[in-house]
From TrEMBL, chain A:
Matching Gene3D superfamilies: 3.40.50.2300
Tree of life domain: Bacteria
The organism of origin for this protein: Streptosporangium pseudovulgare
Name of this chain's protein: Branched chain amino acid ABC transporter substrate-binding protein
Domain Leucine-binding protein: 41-380
Transmembrane feature ranges: none
Keyword Signal on entry: yes
From TrEMBL, chain B:
Primary localization class, coarse: membrane
Ranges that cross the membrane: 6-27, 39-59, 65-88, 100-119, 139-164, 193-215, 221-240, 247-265, 271-290
Record key words, sorted: Amino-acid transport, Cell inner membrane, Cell membrane, Membrane, Transmembrane, Transmembrane helix, Transport
Family under the similarity heading: Belongs to the binding-protein-dependent transport system permease family. LivHM subfamily.
Name of this protein: Branched-chain amino acid ABC transporter permease
Entry annotated with the keyword Transmembrane helix: yes
Subcellular location, record wording: Cell membrane
Pfam families per the UniProt record, alphabetical: BPD_transp_2
Membrane topology of the entry: Multi-pass membrane protein
Length: 389, 297
């Protein structure tokens, strides 16, 4: 994909010229600013990790986005224009992300539909903002992304605040007395842990036994686990990613911990079960937005994904798919790709069906309903435990 | 308390195994082989591939099978280390030290992302894992598997020490470390000895990789980066180039981390461990057992 941007731009330009030559240049116009581009594809840009520590996530998101693009194009595209997806690598790293965002901007992206690591997405906000490109962020969900109240930034994943609220609700429901919170010191993970702690600190219900930070990408967490177990908690909540989550669940059980374990949405992956091993993973809870597995009527979608890419969809596949559909919807409603109009269209959306439920943005541009629910590992499969409705 | 010591010693024995390769290579050709941690990763993946090829193994046979895989993997990673030296380092042996260092960093990236291209970015999980029941010894909870792994590590380290101090081969290594030019004048085949040094160091890293895969279960293409850094630290603590010192350094680093976590909490662990390292090096720059390096003229 990355080796051929020049040739693809060249061939696109040729197609565009040909199309104009055939006299279709006036189709679907209507907006002064857009008439010049009416026959060019609507370009969606997606920044995702394709290298580095989170490289495994990239394909889940870009494949699903491509699936949405192909489906929409098969139905004739948007406003008579085709969609086109361009991806760039952010390596889950601020500098690479900024470079990738600049690359996408120069490639003429109309709407950004990427963003997985919050820390890498943050520096791209002003870059897309200056180019007047709306951003629909499918996965990154740190509160910092919306704290600046930027007009062009929309989050379609539940926020840390919403996730913490769901976690606290479930702990209380389970009658937990003493909760150990474990995070990996990244902004996303620490955010959830601290927000959960703030909720637990309220009188009544469970109390926070300790907050333990671990170093991600290691194998041995026995020292952290010794610390956790010294406080004798009856509930452990891990808010980081699945690689460490699997190891922590396994090592907690090996150390003789008998209480409940819960993980955050970054840890929801079949790999978690595999890494922890079936015995240790059994009964592990998770706070998670809706996934294809827990959604009724998503079997067809999973099949379509498997047929096209030969693998199962993974974490954030559904959000990436929805981001593309939402971008198409907004561009259609706006009647063109003018940034300000697309933003207005996004703000006006009410009841657009997504995996997470009907969409309506809050004034902050986050989901009005985070849609977090509790999953549980049962017989080695991640299944729905409680929709917290 | 005993739990903390045991945790530290267990992690430390991994650090020590990986650190030995670092230390040996540095001792002989004064090269910081930054790709060394990636040989550990390569070992973990080689073991994974071999286990996959062997197929289903009943859990009662797990330990003997793993030991066999360990030996094969050591050979594979050893050869990979030799190839690495032949391709990336030998042509540059007379080049400035900095070029060699940059090449090592390049080799590290080549191995990491080569493995990603070959095996994918998703973490893999060992089909055969050492779990087992735990037993309580003096207040510390440990498993049989941990004891076996530490046992293997100790045997490998003792074997290495005997090799270096008691054999002709070891004498040749030490001679080259002192002065490569004179050694070759004395009839030592310098290139062959350096190759063998890489073989041994890489084999040890590969062994650690398989052991980590079998014990922790999860392997991924970047797993060697952090442990490479830790091993380097361990080697410096103990005295880089000095074999018993390096072993000691690994154990000390493991203990520092374990106690740092306990005293100050997880987020301060690395601050504590590396703070001690800095303090230590200002007081004793040659490491615990390192000898003062005399400038050669």
């Amino acid at each position: 994909m990355r080796a051929t941007p020049l040739t693809s731009i060249a061939s696109l330009a040729a197609v565009a010229l040909l199309a104009t030559g055939c006299g279709q240049g006036l189709l679907g116009g209507g907006d002064g600013g857009d008439t010049a581009k009416t026959n060019e594809p609507i370009v969606l840009g997606m920044l995702i990790p394709q290298s580095g520590s989170e490289a495994a996530i990239g394909p889940y998101m870009s494949n699903a986005a491509q699936l949405a693009v192909d489906e929409i194009n098969a139905k004739g595209g948007v406003l008579g224009r085709k969609l086109e997806l361009k991806t760039a690598d952010d390596a889950c790293d601020a500098q690479s992300a900024a470079a990738g965002a600049n690359k996408l901007v120069t490639e003429g992206v109309d709407v950004s539909v990427g963003g997985y690591c919050s820390g890498a997405t943050l520096p791209t906000l002003p870059i897309f903002g200056k180019a007047n490109i709306p951003m629909i962020i499918p996965a990154a969900n740190s509160q910092e992304l919306v704290d600046q109240k930027l007009k062009h930034v929309f989050l379609i994943n539940g926020t840390g605040t919403q996730q913490a609220a769901a976690a606290e609700k479930w702990m209380t429901k389970q009658g937990a007395k003493s909760v150990a919170l474990m995070h990996d010191n990244t902004s996303y993970s620490k955010d959830i842990a601290l927000r959960t702690q703030a909720l637990l600190d309220a009188p009544g219900g469970a109390d926070t036994a300790l907050i333990e930070a671990v170093t991600p990408k290691e194998s041995d967490y026995s020292a952290n686990i010794t610390n956790v177990l010294a406080k004798k908690p009856d509930f452990v909540y891990w808010t980081g990613y699945f690689q460490e989550g699997g190891l922590i669940a396994r090592q907690l059980r090996q150390a003789g911990y008998k209480g409940s374990i819960m993980v955050g949405d970054g840890s929801v992956s079949p790999k978690l079960v595999e890494i922890a091993g079936p015995e240790a993973a059994e009964g592990v809870y998770a706070t998670m937005t809706q996934t294809p597995d827990t959604l009724e009527g998503a079997e067809g979608w999973i099949e379509a994904y498997k047929k096209k890419f030969g693998t199962e969809p993974g974490p954030y596949s559904n959000q990436a798919y929805d981001a593309v559909r939402l971008a198409a919807e907004a561009v259609g409603k706006a009647g063109g790709t003018d940034g300000a109009k697309v933003i207005a269209a996004l703000e006006a959306i009410d009841g657009f069906q997504m995996f997470s439920g009907p969409l309506k943005f809050t004034p902050e541009h986050t989901l009005s309903n985070g849609g977090f629910q509790i999953l549980v590992v049962k017989d080695g499969k991640i299944t729905l435990q409680d929709s917290l409705k | 308390m005993t739990q903390l010591i045991w945790n530290g010693l267990f992690v430390g024995s991994f650090y020590a195994l990986v650190a030995l390769g670092y230390s040996m290579v540095y001792g002989i050709i004064k090269l910081l082989n930054f790709a060394h941690g990636d040989l550990y990763m390569l070992g973990a993946f080689a073991g994974f591939a071999i286990l996959g090829a062997v197929g289903g193994v009943s859990s009662s046979m797990a330990l003997p099978v793993l030991l066999a895989v360990l030996v094969v993997t050591m050979a594979v990673t050893g050869l990979a280390g030799v190839a690495l030296e032949r391709i990336a380092y030998r042509p540059l042996r007379r080049a400035p030290r900095l070029s060699l260092l940059i090449t090592a960093v390049g080799a590290s990236f080549a191995l990491e992302y080569g493995m990603r291209a070959a095996a994918g970015a998703d973490p893999r999980v060992y089909p055969l894992r050492l779990g087992g029941s735990s037993l309580e010894v003096a207040g510390a909870r440990l498993t049989l598997a941990q004891l076996v792994l530490v046992g293997v590590a100790v045997v490998l380290m003792i074997g290495l020490n005997l090799l270096v101090t008691r054999t002709r081969e070891g004498r040749a290594m030490r001679a080259i470390a002192l002065d490569p030019t004179t050694s070759s004048l004395m009839g030592i085949d310098v290139n062959a000895v350096i190759s063998r040094t890489f073989f041994i160091g890489s084999a040890l890293a590969g062994a650690a990789g398989v052991m980590a895969g079998a014990y922790y279960g999860k392997i991924d293409f970047l797993m060697g980066f952090l442990i490479g850094l830790k091993a380097f630290t361990a080697a410096v603590i103990g005295g880089i180039g000095n074999i018993p010192g390096t072993m000691l350094g690994g154990l000390v680093l493991g203990l520092l981390e374990s106690f740092g976590t306990f005293w100050l909490g997880g987020e301060w662990r690395d601050v504590f461990a590396f703070g001690v390292l800095i303090l230590f090096l200002t007081v004793r720059p040659t490491g615990l057992l390192g000898e003062r390096v005399t400038e050669r003229v």
